[in-house]
Predict the structure.
Amino acid sequence: MAALTDFSKLCVHTQTTKPWSIEECITHFHAAGIKGISIWRHLLEGKDLNAVKALLEVHQMDVVSLVRGGFFPSVDKKQRELSLEDNRLAIDQANALGAPLVVLVCGADPKQPLEVSRQQIQESIMALIPYAKNAGVRLAIEPLHPMYAGDKSAIVSLGQANDLCEAIDSPWVGIAIDVYHLWWEDELKKEIFRCGKNNNIVAFHVCDWRVPTLDFLTDRGLMGEGCIPVRQIREWVEEAGFEGPNEVEVFSERLWAQDQKQYLEDIKKSYLNYT
Ligand code: ZN
């Protein structure tokens, strides 16, 4: 398996360096030679998006995606409408920042069966397509690990995401493949190739699964710190036709507690050695 030899495809999520503001992320990523950035929306609260865009441009940053929209299902119709409104806002924000993609954490309502939530997810995404198309922003369904099926995502495997994406069948809707959520899947290679065959791979997220994992939200590892064959999965994704960036998305109390500039250097080492 061929190692990566440079940082041209390295993208870092702002949530990976959670202690930093959007301005700090942009300037420090740039200083570290990292060109790609995926921006988490909470960092934009109260910000002038034109000013953020100008700062991104000055530092020649490539905005890979805006994270995150979704959270569609609810037993309450009013709530589902509010969610659509929030997703239209996410599309507007992506458009304003020049982000080509909004990542969707699809959601689940514990008060109803998963299949009802999945139906509502499909209807909601289909309702958003004209708006997304008009803005020139694609939507990426991100299947999550099944441990999040209770309230974060009724889409919990790449197989299910492929089913959904093929049913929707729009060039404006694709799939974000995240090794943390999908590494365990029986037919992962087959499903990655199925996804690529339909040109549905639109994003690739990397980190690692620590053993033991102490917290299922905020104890992710850097690539090489856990049990995920990250390089193998990246090669499958590339063989399936994906040519986009590798996005480092790590949520870790342990790593957030470190000096974040040193941490960026550790991310770069882990990227070349294990991705
Ligand atoms: Zn992800």
